[in-house]
Write a structure and sequence with these properties.
single chain; 8 helices
Length: about 270
């Protein structure tokens, strides 16, 4: 049963994106390079924002709830703005690269258009975001254990997989719209991307306050970075991968609730 959940959720979360990769990207080495570079830019932006938020939390009083709430809101906004700043830097880098390719080309034509680079770069952002969102959840899906054995929803993994799939396509859409806005100097398009990104990240804020969730609510779904419902023997929850890098105990349910809220928003960014 756990193996079926693992493969089912994996193909739901990454199957559509994998199909697009195979049919539209895999045959072109230049597009593969752009995809990997885009994933790297997203990863660096997330690591920097998480490091800054981690330092701010460690330097503050963990018992001061208003302060911790303010730091969480700051962390969410800073993470989104930093990711979009890295998206803009990546656009500038790709623009320079295309100009260089045109100069070296015999027919003065670029081998790839800015629209194609926008799509591939957005896909790179989305795939890395999805990987960070689902990796811990998929590891827990392998068991041992039974989904929902302690009364938690049996749709947890399925809903998380669909949410990850949506986030991958959102990043792809944001990349296309953002690059188009930069190319044609339509700043309202860039602003729309930032607002939508903030809205999606903010929509997951507070979802981890309750011990249970309502799968019928439109956005009340568990983001994969949220500690899983009891699956392993003894009901031990998983930890968010990013905070395992900086501090394995930071997202422990017995410690800071604000760390868990940050994990939610960071994965949805």
């Amino acid at each position: 049963m756990t193996l079926a959940i693992f493969f089912g959720c994996t193909f739901i979360a990454f199957g559509p994106a994998l199909g697009l990769f195979l049919f539209t990207i895999a045959r072109d080495p230049l597009r593969i390079i752009i995809l990997i570079a885009g994933a790297f830019f997203w990863l660096v932006s997330l690591l920097l924002s998480s490091l800054i938020w981690f330092i701010a939390v460690k330097a503050s009083d963990p018992q001061d709830e208003p302060l911790q709430k303010g730091l969480l809101i700051f962390g969410i906004m800073f993470s989104v703005l930093l990711q979009e700043a890295f998206r803009f830097l990546y656009y500038k880098l790709l623009r320079k690269a295309i100009e260089g390719l045109v100069a070296l080309s015999e027919d003065s034509c670029s081998p790839i258009s800015i629209q194609q680079t926008a799509y591939v770069a957005g896909m790179g952002f989305g795939l890395m975001s999805g990987a960070f969102s689902m990796i811990n959840l998929l590891a827990d899906a392998l068991g041992p254990g039974t989904v929902g054995i302690h009364g938690d929803s049996q749709l947890y993994f399925l809903t998380s997989a669909f949410m990850t799939m949506v986030l991958i396509f959102l990043h792809t859409f944001w990349g296309i719209l953002f690059f188009h806005g930069c190319e044609h100097r339509r700043w309202w398009e860039i602003t729309a991307v930032i607002i939508m990104h903030l809205a999606v990240s903010g929509s997951v804020y507070g979802m981890d306050r309750a011990l249970s969730w309502n799968p019928e609510a439109p956005w009340d779904v568990p983001v994969p970075s949220r500690p899983c419902p009891p699956l392993c023997p003894g009901g031990k929850s998983s930890h968010h991968l990013l905070f395992n890098i900086f501090s394995p105990g930071l997202v422990d349910p017995g410690q800071s609730q604000w760390s868990r809220h940050w994990g939610l928003a960071a994965a949805a960014s």
